[in-house]
From TrEMBL:
Key words of the record: ATP-binding, Nucleotide-binding, Transferase
Organism annotation: Caldimonas brevitalea
Domain Aminoglycoside phosphotransferase span(s) in chain numbering: 35-261
InterPro entries: Aminoglycoside_PTrfase, Kinase-like_dom_sf
Recorded coiled-coil stretches: none
Descriptive protein name: Aminoglycoside phosphotransferase
Organism ancestry: Bacteria, Pseudomonadati, Pseudomonadota, Betaproteobacteria, Burkholderiales
Pfam family, one: APH
Domain of life: Bacteria
One MF annotation (Gene Ontology) recorded for this entry: transferase activity
């Protein structure tokens, strides 16, 4: 089969190394001529699809000078051992940063989700989430500690406020932001800790099999997993940066998750109202971070595809900030920044 989406290389030596490694996989029935692009992500990793005697496979291209594949390997095994449908690692050329993986298909949750399919797909996603959070991985992954959470929040002033909005905060505004960060982190760090995927959302969940089947969803992009707040991945899932649901629907799915988590013995708050508050505050941390990340991808990396998602993420953050005592000044700051964006000519 001839590639219909030829892949390009900027490093000739790397291309030759890739072709040598691929040719060495003859025992797996790999057809080197079938290589075509599968996807790229926000890092230096690229993914190709290749045919084999046993069906298609995924090839990861992760240059060792930019990407450390060891966390990916470790977490993939943790997830698979925990009963999740993560890619199986079939071959790993650690020295050159090439990996052969099982193929979870090309249909993301985002591509399939609509009002009709969402109930069953989210039921599977929350069931898998409970299963993942039951994995005892505290000693296997880094802690989602105050230092890491703070570094993530700092992306918001560095890239969204300063670079994207072109705003220099006054002393009073800097104090507002610092005080808001302190309140957010106090909540986040008080939550019980479990294994956290960190990007458990519709672009990283693959539709595998029929709804309700144990292989659904396929889970990808988990290499940054940490041990941290129990509400983080649920906030990633239900307040996804790429698809929005009415809050009433979010609460319904959150209740269903919460019931399953309690039945599984996970350390969720026994009071759903308190759990929901933690969910909102955790989501606020994530959404401030994502505002910064999306702007960094544009201004530093030249990737403008994420700019269209900024308004939804802003709404998530503003809604929570406006709802809770102590965060009203943050909501007002977000409103000011949205006005600055409009004046700068950015679509919002």
């Amino acid at each position: 089969m001839t590639s219909t989406h030829p892949i390009s290389w900027t490093d000739e030596q790397r291309r030759l190394a890739f072709e040598r490694w691929l040719a060495s996989l003859g025992h797996r029935g790999i057809d080197p001529a079938s290589v075509r692009s599968a996807s790229a992500d926000a890092s230096f990793r690229r993914y190709f699809r290749v045919d084999s005697a046993e069906g298609s496979r995924i090839v990861m291209d992760a240059p060792p000078s930019y990407e450390d594949c060891r966390p990916f390997v470790k977490v993939a095994r943790l997830l698979r051992d925990g009963g999740l449908n993560a890619p199986e690692i079939l071959d790993w050329n650690e020295a050159d940063g090439f990996m052969l993986l099982s193929d979870l298909g090309s249909t993301t949750y985002l591509a399939r989700l609509d009002a009709d399919t969402a109930p069953a797909l989210y039921e599977d996603a929350t069931t898998a989430l409970v299963r993942m959070q039951a994995i005892d991985a505290a000693a296997q992954v880094p802690p989602y500690d105050q230092a890491l959470l703070t570094r993530e929040l700092q992306l918001f002033p560095d890239w969204y406020i300063g670079r994207h909005c072109g705003v220099t905060l006054s002393d009073d505004e800097q104090h507002v932001l610092q005080r808001s960060f302190e309140l957010i982190l106090r909540n986040n760090l008080a939550q019980p800790a479990v294994l956290v995927h960190r990007d458990y959302h519709s672009r990283n969940l693959m539709v595998c099999g029929t709804p309700g089947s144990p292989e659904n969803p396929g889970v990808i992009d988990f290499q940054d997993a940490v041990w941290g707040p129990i509400t983080y991945d649920l906030a990633s899932l239900l307040r996804d940066a790429y698809i929005e649901w009415e809050e009433e629907q979010q609460i319904d799915w959150a209740v269903r998750y919460w019931q399953k988590a309690r039945q599984a013995g996970l350390p969720v708050n026994a009071d759903f109202g308190e759990f929901w508050r933690d969910f909102e505050w955790m989501g606020l941390q994530r959404h401030l971070k994502v505002l910064g990340i999306f702007c960094r991808l544009y201004h530093r990396d030249g990737k403008d595809g994420y700019l269209k998602d900024l308004p939804m993420v802003w709404r998530y953050a503003h809604r929570v900030a406006a709802r809770y005592n102590g965060l009203t000044p943050l909501a007002q700051l977000l409103e000011k920044l949205a006005g600055e964006q409009r004046q700068a000519g950015y679509t919002f």
